[in-house]
Amino acid sequence: MMTTFEVLAEPMRRQILDLLRERPRLVGEMVVLLSVSQPGISKHLRVLREVGLVRVRQDAQRRWYELHPEPLAEVDAWLEPYRKLWGERLDALERHLNAKKEEA
Fold first, then answer.
1. Within this chain, do residues 85 and 50 fall inside the same structural domain, yes or no?
2. Pairing relationship of beta strands 54-59 and 62-67 according to DSSP bridges
3. Helices 27-34 and 38-50 meet at what angle, rounded to 10?
4. How far, in Å, CA of 15 to CA of 87, rounded?
5. Considering the entire predicted model, what is its pTM?
6. Do 51 and 12 sit in the same domain of this protein?
7. Keyword ATP-binding on this protein (predicted)?
8. What's the distance, CA 40 to chain centroid?
């Protein structure tokens, strides 16, 4: 089975998650919005379901797909040290720019 990181490496899967972030959707709607074939969307949805990023809800003959964001906590935890690093670098850049402004 693929990891959350491996699944998110595919741009189309990220686009699907972006759509599902807004609200639950039907496959047909995603086909139109993403200009991808129904089998193509279904393949990506299967992978997203396997890692737990997407849930499906049956409503009569329709299947609604919705985001299940909890597995993204793993990604968020991995990114946390980088946020600190970026913050420190941006703070240093701000200090540098302020010093240059004061010199002028």
1. no
2. antiparallel
3. 120
4. 27
5. 0.80
6. yes
7. no
8. 18
